[in-house]
């Protein structure tokens, strides 16, 4: 190659290493790799207002989902109800305590930290500045993403309810609806590409 | 098909964390991203051996995960133990076929698919196969996105043991199989995360004018 291209105008497919030069996209357009078909980038501007709104809604829903019981079970006059934390503490005391540690991380701590970090990053970005620990927060968000499993816990709660209807009177409680809504919110929130946030934050430095 | 310019040949690296494209003219081995300070590399370090290690560990644990009971159900002094597969069969026989399909997919199909497809991807990549690279890359993307759904049974067991504890009347206890099963899911996730899909496309020597890098003697 005679002259070097400006790296900032390039995009590299993370799945097959093909190099492309970026072209502006229209709204809702996506660029796909010609070689392997993976998505390269979307119409770049992430809407910080929308992301922040989703983050705050998730925070509220997180509190609701965790404060109220998820399921109540009645059997011969006896009843048991469980919140997420009841489940975690009970499992911790059982013969499979290690499961509780995993469940606590993936269904409680990681989603909670994700919500807090999104708020920490987005509130200053919206005001036009970068938070002090921007880099660390963004790395933590990316690394936690695959281990945050609110949606799987939600489906697990639904499966448990249906399984129990065969043997006892079960009732879904507010907590279950809270988790269902939280799942939706977090799914939309994590569909935003963090790499676009990096690009946008760079514009603040310039 | 293989006519696109590749970043490796142009000595470019894209940061896996923030997507910034960096110039790697000096072929730095341990450089950091100028924007996000992450270590950048042309390929994930020791990708294939790390991916194999996690995959083999997962395959071994898959045996106790399926043989050991995941749940012990006591009803009127009668204790029944159920494994992952027998749990699905029970659901089917109870008439909850929709639920049986969901649990069967998450607990049986997805783990087997992940173990099988990762083995296939690792072997075909090691052999530098040029067979259906595009489809194999797509397989990898699918594996990457479905893996965590297998945790379904783990959450179900945790909820059931918490809800159903009415002494001798009705009691659900967890069995050791569920720990092995959770470990299988975590290990297959680590295996697919360690795999570098760009290796699927590294079927020829770098098209570069400089002598090929032998990967060991650089320091």
SSE topology sketch:
The complex is a heterodimer of chains A (206) and B (219).
Chain A: E1 10-12, E2 19-21, E3 30-32, E4 39-42, H1 48-67, E5 71-75, E6 78-82, H2 84-93, H3 97-126, H4 134-144, H5 150-165, E7 169-172, H6 174-190, H7 194-205
Antiparallel strand pairs in A: 1-2, 3-4, 5-6, 5-7
Chain B: H1 7-10, E1 12-14, E2 21-23, E3 31-32, E4 39-40, H2 47-67, E5 71-75, E6 78-82, H3 84-93, H4 97-126, H5 133-146, H6 152-163, E7 165-166, E8 170-174, H7 177-194
Helix pairs in contact in B: 2-4, 2-7, 3-4, 4-5, 4-7
Features:
heterodimer, A: 206 residues, alpha+beta, three-stranded antiparallel beta sheet, two-stranded antiparallel ribbon, 7 helices, 13% strand, B: 219 residues, Butyryl-CoA Dehydrogenase, subunit A, domain 3, four-stranded antiparallel beta sheet, 12% strand, disordered C terminus
Structure description:
- Chain B: Keywords: Cell inner membrane, Cell membrane, Membrane, Transmembrane, Transmembrane helix.
- Chain B: It comes from Stenotrophobium rhamnosiphilum.
- Chain B: It is found in: Cell inner membrane.
- The complex is a heterodimer of chains A (206) and B (219).
- Chain A is α+β, with helices and mostly antiparallel strands and 206 residues long.
- Chain A folds into 2 domains: 7-42; 48-205, no CATH class.
- Chain A is built from 7 helices and 7 strands.
- In chain A, the strands form 3 sheets. Chain A has a 3-stranded antiparallel β-sheet with strand order 6-5-7. Chain A has a two-stranded antiparallel sheet with strand order 1-2. A two-stranded antiparallel sheet of chain A has the order 3-4.
- In chain A, strand 3 (30-32) and strand 4 form a beta hairpin.
- In chain B, helix 2 runs antiparallel to helix 7 (177-194), helix 3 (84-93) packs antiparallel against helix 4 and helix 4 (97-126) packs across helix 5 (133-146).
- In chain B, the strands form 3 sheets. Chain B has a 4-stranded antiparallel β-sheet. A two-stranded antiparallel sheet of chain B has the order 1-2. A two-stranded antiparallel sheet of chain B has the order 3-4.
- Chain B has 2 domains: 1-42, no CATH class; 46-201, Butyryl-CoA Dehydrogenase, subunit A, domain 3.
- In chain B, 50% of the residues lie in helices and 12% in strands.
- With 219 residues, chain B is α+β, with helices and mostly antiparallel strands.
């Amino acid at each position: 190659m005679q002259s070097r291209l400006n790296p900032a105008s390039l995009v590299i497919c993370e799945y097959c290493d093909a190099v492309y030069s970026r072209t502006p996209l229209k709204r809702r357009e996506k660029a796909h790799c010609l070689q392997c078909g993976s998505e390269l980038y979307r119409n770049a501007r992430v809407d910080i207002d929308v992301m922040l709104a989703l983050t705050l809604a998730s925070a509220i829903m997180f509190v609701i989902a965790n404060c109220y019981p998820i399921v109540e079970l009645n059997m011969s006059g006896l009843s048991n109800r469980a919140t997420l934390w009841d489940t975690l503490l009970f499992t911790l005391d059982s013969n499979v305590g290690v499961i509780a540690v995993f469940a606590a991380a993936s269904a409680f701590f990681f989603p909670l930290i994700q919500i807090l970090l999104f708020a920490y990053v987005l509130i200053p970005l919206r005001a036009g500045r970068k938070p002090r620990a921007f880099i660390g927060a963004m790395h933590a968000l990316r690394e936690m993403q695959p281990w945050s499993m609110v949606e799987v816990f939600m489906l697990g709660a639904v499966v448990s309810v249906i399984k129990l209807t065969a043997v006892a009177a079960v009732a879904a409680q507010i907590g279950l609806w809270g988790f269902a809504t939280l799942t939706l919110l977090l799914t939309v929130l994590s569909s935003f590409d963090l790499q676009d946030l990096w690009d946008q934050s760079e514009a603040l430095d310039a | 098909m293989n006519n696109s310019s590749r970043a490796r040949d142009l000595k470019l690296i894209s940061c896996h964390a923030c997507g910034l494209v960096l110039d790697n003219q000096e072929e730095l081995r341990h450089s950091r991203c100028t924007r996000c300070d992450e270590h950048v590399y042309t390929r994930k370090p020791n990708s294939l051996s790390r991916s194999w290690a996690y995959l083999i560990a997962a395959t071994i644990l898959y045996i106790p995960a399926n043989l050991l009971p995941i749940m012990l159900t006591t009803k009127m002094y009668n204790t029944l133990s159920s494994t992952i597969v027998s749990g699905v069969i029970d659901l089917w026989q109870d008439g909850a076929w929709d639920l049986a399909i969901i649990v069967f997919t998450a607990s049986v199909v997805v783990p087997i698919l992940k173990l099988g497809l990762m083995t296939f991807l690792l072997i075909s990549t090691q052999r530098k196969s040029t067979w259906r690279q595009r489809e194999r890359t797509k397989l990898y993307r699918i594996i990457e996105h479905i893996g965590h759904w297998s945790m379904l049974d783990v959450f179900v067991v945790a909820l059931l043991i918490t809800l159903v504890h009415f002494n001798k009347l009705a009691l659900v206890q967890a069995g050791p199989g569920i720990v092995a099963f959770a470990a299988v899911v975590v290990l297959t996730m680590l295996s697919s995360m360690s795999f570098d899909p760009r290796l699927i496309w590294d079927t020829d020597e770098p098209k570069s004018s400089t002598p090929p890098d032998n990967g060991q003697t650089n320091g």
